[in-house]
Structures are given as structure tokens and as C-alpha cells.
Design brief:
Alpha-Beta Plaits, DNA polymerase, domain 1, 3 domains, five-stranded mixed β-sheet, 16 helices, DNA-binding
Length: 438
DNA sequence: TCTGGGGTCCTAGGACCC
DNA sequence: TCTGGGGTCCTAGGACCC
């Protein structure tokens, strides 16, 4: 009876898209198949996704566009990022993956964890089915890694990507301790999830070169010399779950909207336009997750890369009571901006961050409103909430800049807007753009 | 000319309290 | 005279992730 009562061994899968943004572009422009393609960040600053063909040209992740532009002569295709398209493709991909298990955690735009514990079938078979279905139904190639913990699933996914003979699926679940050690002994420490560019050299200096080395390292040493987080990573590498599972998306605790400018900005009026737009965007995200913010932070800075006079500053403006109203947030953001703005600098970037984000409470619960003439305040808050809902619906329907509060309006050729020289049509999100046939 | 944007968690240290 | 030992809360900054 012991065998029947025992719980099945944990089995976590990590599924992610290969060169996801590039793959999205290829779904709708099949002529890009087989060609070196990169997707450029906002402002066409640097490469944020590369196909295998582009990697083979030696383009590293994050390569500045101005340094690799010349590769166009050798057939490189560069596309300005279209995040609306990628978000839409992501939703489709996640829905298909979610069909394989009731427990799914969407970790990023192109990655999701799936709990396969107790489901019938071998890991390899399930993984292969997931890959095939996502490719057929959505058009995105994926890899699947499976392990007893999230960290091992990530590591297995890394192996599935780098070892062609695995054909896109790697299952490390169900291995004994010795087999597991052997399976991960060639994975460099810098490729372990949770070890970044700062920790890797420090660990290597201690002789911890591989994932297997970290798994073997004494937890007390890791806690003392590094952190509790790294100790968790090591435990996960041994197959002991130390990182929790999030079935529902966790509401964000801060919401940012920030951009580098297309050209330097000296003018307060122009900065006000930009900050107004950032604030409306952030407020929209705030309302999408049904939250209120109690403070607004604004920051402006000159370029990190220019030799000119440097200035960076930020201000936090607390709000009387938490709100999701664009106009209230705007007033706070603009007053913050005016308090940090100094004339005579070439500003390269600005941003807005909503702080103290918390679940929205119903209007009548808010203390401050009782303190005032509650009837009047309540009515005006309700009116404001209804207006915001209408604005959000119109923007979702017709494009994000369709409706804005007055001070967020700007000329379509405003200097601070992003450069996006390589945009492809917004196939799935903008009316009038059509899918390439071919 | 030219180098993204958006998040999380943990820790150290100061202020304050008993 | 030299200089308690905790605890909590807050903030800034470091490190990581995609």
C-alpha cells in the first residue's frame, strides 16, 4: 500500500519558442524562412532576437545595430520590433500549450512552465506532441525541457536547444542522483538559470565551473559567501523544489513605461509630451490588472554614451489616495517632471514608474472620500472610472494612440518618438495590414 | 548619427523602539 | 565610565531574468 500512497515524482516542463520574435515575423512572411533575420529593439537600438542563420553570422545578443548594419550586404534582414504582434502570437501559443496540463505558469512572452506530474505518458512523448501541435497550429518552432524542478527544466531546455540529436526535447526527470550529475556536468555555470555575468566569474574562481559543481557545493558555503537565492538554485539542481509555482499571473507591484528618444530633447514642453504619453500607457496597464497606485516616479536622463554634460534625476510624488485615474496620475507625473528638469541638457530618455501598486478597492471604501463630501466625490470618481474604461476599450480596439487625454497629444512627427525604420506591417493587430501570401 | 524596456527578489544599513 | 542587544520598518542598490 506504500507504493500506492506515494506521490508521483515531480515533472516540470519548460516550453519556449526558438528565436521567438523572429519566428513570429516568419509566420507571416514565409519568404524569411532560411534567411538570417534579426529583430531590433525599440529605437532600432540593438538586436533582441536572432535566427540560427543570423547567429551563424556571428551576431551576438544585444549587438548595436550601427555595428552590424553592414551585414545587410550579406543578406541579413533586420525588422523593427512589433510587440503587439508578438503578444498576439504569444497568446495563441500559450493557449495551445495549456491544453496539455491544467497547471500552466506563463513565465515570459515566449516561455511557459507546465506541470506534468502524474500525467500519463513518457516525458519525451508529451514534449514531442507539444512541439508538433504548436508548430502546426501556431507556426512557432519550440523546444521542451523536462525536470524535477523549474531550474532543471530550464537546464533541460538549454540542452534540447544545443544538442541537435535530442530533436528539441530533453527529459531529465526520473534520473537518479548519479545519472543527473552526469547529465549536467558539461553545462557551464554561466548557463544555469539564476547565475548571471557577475556571479559566474566569482563561482569559477572557486572551482565551480559546471552545473554539476554547483549542485555539489555545500549550501552553508553558498549562503555565507553568496546568497540564499544561489543556495536555492543549487538545491533545485539536485532535484529539490525550492522555487514556487504561480498558477495565476501575480499582479505587478510596480508598472513602468519608459523610452529612449529618437533625438535628444532639451525642451520642457517636449518632455511633458513624452511623460504624458508614458503616464497614460502605465495607467492603462494599471487598470488592466485592476490595481491602484499610491505614488508616481518620474525620471529623466541624458545619454550614457554622449560626452556632453551629464544629468540624471528622478522624483517620487506621493498621491493623496491610491488611484487609477490617468488625469490624477498625469498631474503628479508632470509636477515631478518639473521638479527635476534642468534646462540646458540634451535628455536622451525619460520614464514613469507607478509605485505602491495594490488591488483596487471599491470607490466607497476609500477613506479620503468619506472625509470629503462623499456623495459628490463618489460620483466624480465613478464618472472618472467609466471614462477611463471607455478610453481603454477604444485604444484596444483601434490602436494604442487613438484616444489620449489632452496633454498626451503630440504631433505625429514629434522628435522624441522612436525611430522604427524597419517596421513590418502589424498583420494581426492593425486593420488594413494583410498577410503575405506565399 | 548610433547601445531596449520591463520586471523580480534579496540584502545591507539606517532610523527608531523597547 | 564607554558604548546592551534585540526587533521592525524602510530604502537604496545589487543581482538576476527575458
Amino acid at each position: 500500500m506504500g507504493a500506492q500512497a506515494r506521490r508521483p515524482p515531480p515533472r516540470i516542463a519548460l516550453i519556449d519558442g526558438n528565436s521567438f520574435y523572429c519566428a513570429c515575423e516568419r509566420v507571416l512572411r514565409p519568404s524569411l524562412e532560411g534567411r538570417p533575420v534579426i529583430v531590433l529593439s525599440n529605437n532600432d537600438g540593438c538586436a533582441i532576437a536572432r535566427t540560427a542563420e543570423a547567429k551563424a553570422m556571428g551576431i551576438p545578443m544585444g549587438a548595436p545595430w550601427f555595428k552590424i548594419q553592414h551585414l545587410q550586404a550579406r543578406g541579413l534582414v533586420a525588422i523593427s520590433a512589433n510587440f503587439a504582434l508578438y503578444g498576439d502570437m504569444s497568446d495563441r501559443m500559450m493557449r495551445v500549450i495549456g491544453q496539455f496540463s491544467p497547471a500552466q505558469e506563463i513565465y515570459s512572452i515566449d516561455e511557459s512552465f507546465l506541470d506534468l506530474t502524474g500525467l500519463p505518458g513518457a516525458g519525451r512523448d508529451i514534449g514531442t506532441q507539444i512541439r508538433q501541435r504548436v508548430l502546426r497550429w501556431v507556426g512557432i518552432p519550440t523546444c521542451v525541457g523536462i525536470g524535477a524542478t523549474k531550474t532543471l527544466a530550464k537546464l533541460a531546455n538549454h540542452l534540447a536547444k544545443s544538442l541537435p540529436r535530442l530533436q528539441g526535447v530533453c527529459d531529465l526527470s526520473g534520473l537518479g542522483p548519479a545519472e543527473l550529475q552526469r547529465a549536467i556536468r558539461h553545462v557551464p555555470i554561466r548557463d544555469v538559470w539564476g547565475v548571471g555575468r557577475r556571479l559566474a566569474p566569482r563561482l569559477e574562481a572557486l572551482g565551480i565551473q559546471s552545473a554539476a559543481d554547483l549542485a555539489r557545493t555545500d549550501g552553508r558555503v553558498l549562503q555565507r559567501q553568496f546568497s540564499a537565492t544561489l543556495d536555492k538554485t543549487a538545491r533545485e539542481l539536485r532535484g529539490e523544489p525550492a522555487i514556487g509555482w504561480e498558477d495565476a499571473p501575480v499582479p505587478k507591484q510596480q508598472i513602468m513605461s519608459t523610452r529612449s528618444f529618437g533625438l535628444p530633447v532639451r525642451d520642457l514642453a517636449e518632455l511633458e509630451q513624452a511623460v504624458s504619453l508614458f503616464t497614460s500607457r502605465a495607467a492603462e496597464k494599471l487598470r488592466q490588472q485592476h490595481s491602484h497606485a499610491a505614488a508616481v516616479q518620474v525620471f529623466i536622463r541624458t545619454s550614457r554614451f554622449s560626452a556632453g554634460p551629464w544629468h540624471a534625476d528622478s522624483a517620487v510624488v506621493p498621491l493623496g489616495s491610491p488611484t487609477d485615474s490617468t488625469s490624477v496620475l498625469l498631474r503628479a507625473a508632470l509636477s515631478g517632471l518639473r521638479s527635476v528638469f534642468q534646462p540646458g541638457f540634451d535628455y536622451a530618455k525619460a520614464g514613469v514608474c507607478l509605485l505602491d501598486v495594490r488591488p483596487a478597492v471599491s470607490v466607497s471604501m476609500q477613506g479620503e472620500l468619506f472625509a470629503l463630501d462623499s456623495g459628490h466625490a463618489e460620483k466624480s470618481a465613478l464618472r472618472s472610472a467609466r471614462a477611463m474604461a471607455v478610453v481603454d476599450r477604444l485604444n484596444q480596439r483601434f490602436g494604442s494612440r487613438m484616444v489620449q487625454v489632452a496633454s498626451a497629444l503630440h504631433e505625429p512627427d514629434a522628435r522624441w518618438l522612436m525611430r522604427q525604420a524597419h517596421q513590418s506591417p502589424s498583420y494581426t493587430t492593425v486593420w488594413g495590414d494583410v498577410v503575405e501570401v506565399g
